[in-house]
Amino acid sequence: MVLDGSWRPACSKAGIPKGTGPHALRHHYASLLIKHGESVKTVSERLGHTNAAMTLNIYTHLWPDSEERTRAAVDQAYADQSADAQLQVDKAALPLPRALTEASTLRTLCGPQRPPQPTPSQVRRPFAERIRR
Question: Where are the alpha helices (H) located in the chain, listed in sequence order?
Fold first, then answer.
């Protein structure tokens, strides 16, 4: 048998505990890939699984807890947003050069302004009244 002829002597020489079979080493290999952040797809390919669902059925419990990762992702997003907001506040506190505060310069930089739209009370007659007459 292969286990008696080559496997066990090789394990003994490598210092692998007696009774460890090839399947246990396969699981160890998969767990190392998962621990070091490999994707389900990559682990599935390396193990020769037919699809990623097969890998997930066996190894789901080894992937890091997503609750902690998602919490950290949201915290980071809000930290980034807070830093961006602080930068905007800092920029707003800087005095603008006089030329930029003049209306003509602002129109040139910002483009033409649309005229204000009339409010309903400023419209001569509502559309419905014009249709009735």
Answer: 2, 8-14, 22-35, 40-47, 52-59, 66-93, 98-101, 103-110, 127-132
- In angstroms, rounded to a whole number, what is the distance separating the alpha carbons of residues 61 and 91? 48
126 Cβ contact partners less than 8 Å away, ≥ 6 residues apart: 120
pLDDT in tens, 21-32: 888 889 999 999
Measure the CA dihedral 37/42/48/49, to 10°.
Answer: 90
Per-residue pLDDT tens digits for 118-131: 665 555 655 555 56
What is the reported pTM?
0.47
* Angstrom distances, CA of residue 115 to CA of 76, 105, 118, 126: 42, 18, 9, 20
Q: Which residues contact 100 (CB under 8 A, 6 or more apart)?
A: 106, 109
